[in-house]
Sequence to fold (203 residues):
Amino acid sequence: MKAMLLTLARARLCRTRGLGDALGRVRGDRADRGAGVARIRIRVPQVLVGAAILACGAVGATLVSQYQFDMKPCVWCVLQRFICLVLAVLALVGAALGGRARRGAVWLALLAALGGVASALWQHFVAAQTEWCPHTLAERIVTGLHLDRLAPDVFIAYATCADAAVNLLGVPYAIWSCAVFVTLAVLLASTLWALGRAAASRR
Fold:
């Protein structure tokens, strides 16, 4: 009788251990899958390419609004188009490179995004309150780089700052622009954070 009870106890113990091993394997598989998902979510090149697409898409949207809906840009609008294109190029460079070169490109792109935020806010709160905006920083940059000659369809300002202060879906156009730049800044800042964590983990 004792031998039978001992055999049953051993069988139960084996079953318990087997179930524990199976649960451990399942948890391990889930953890591995979760780690894989995490790795996919923080792939820096994909984020940078997405930022470049968003920046170029914003420029495309302004061109559609200009040529299809007759929403003429002012010099600050034109400057923000240029900032978007510069940011897109820097983001693509960062996606293609690695190491310190990538971090440098992302830092420059982040500075461009913050410059875009400042430009959009200045346009909305200051420039839009004036009838004309000559001799401003925006005009000096655009004319100094000869952007209006290199790509006149994109970089010529046809409206005054006051005339360009129009709404899109009830929201001022400059605020839409600011929102795009803020989104880009968040993406780029999170990319720098991910790059910093990856560098720290390798030390």
Remarks:
- The beta strands are 167-168, 171-172.
- The two ends are 62 Å apart (CA to CA).
- The longest helix spans residues 2-41.
